[in-house]
Amino acid sequence: xxxxxxxxxxxxxxxxxxxxxxxxxxxxxxxxxxxxxxxxxxxxxxxxxxxxxxxxxxxxxxxxxxxxxxxxxxxxxxxxxxxxxxxxxxxxxxxxxxxxxxxxxxxxxxxxxxxxxxxxxxxxxxxxxxxxxxxxxxxxxxxxxxxxxxxxxxxxxxxxxxxxxxxxxxxxxxxxxxxxxxxxxxxxxxxxxxxxxxxxxxxxxxxxxxxxxxxxxxxxxxxxxxxxxxxxxxxxxxxxxxxxxxxxxxxxxxxxxxxxxxxxxxxxxxxxxxxxxxxxxxxxxxxxxxxxxxxxxxxxxxxxxxxxxxxxxxxxx
Length: 317
Prior knowledge:
alpha/beta; PGRP; two-stranded antiparallel ribbon; PGBDSf; 6-stranded mixed sheet; 11 helices; TAT_signal; single chain
């Protein structure tokens, strides 16, 4: 294991029993035997990109899980449908978002079919040394590789076929880039968004464990707390804490523990003031996320008397 990777593992608080130079080599060999089928942009008749595809001359740090929201939780599990949603997503990203191509690097259908999203993502992944820059995690696209999972998973679980293909795809990506399972994240770990849905997000610890098993890695760790996501309508001590921080930052909000209009307006204003993206994911199509208070807003309001890790731990209680 390289020194940079070793430092990252130690920083993540891992108890590593198999991540070593020999262990990772064994894991990479094991994962190579389970290379998933990934349907290329040519196979789903993708439009050509409207601009140059940026290839970062480094590996991604994180593998990020999304949900598409639209299309929703339909029951067409066919390959033909998987190819069609890839075209639909590209059209939305290019024609509505104004992006040069599909935002995510890969798409996973409810039937368990995986397609290449942004052009060249499959080619570069197979090389294992570079990274196609996407447009799916605002302010972090140079370090994140994104996977859109067809459906809306705020209140329902993913189909078994989608789960199984997601595990296999992430294991392959992790194998190619030497990424250990603690670097599998949800979109909400970077931006204030519902994505990848509360139900799927709650299963990320299970996903990390399953990917580790696919890789042949025995990695024991407690999942480090992430910033909580607060939404308009929420109530409770976390909301009251956030309101106190907002008041200290100069916003005239109550401290009643109710995420009402005044609190929502303050969060929206703060996000706009700092240029935070409020529509970096298709999750924003399901509901207005402009006032969500999550991973990119908390660091702007928590006092400087503690580290961000300490504040995440405190807020997770």
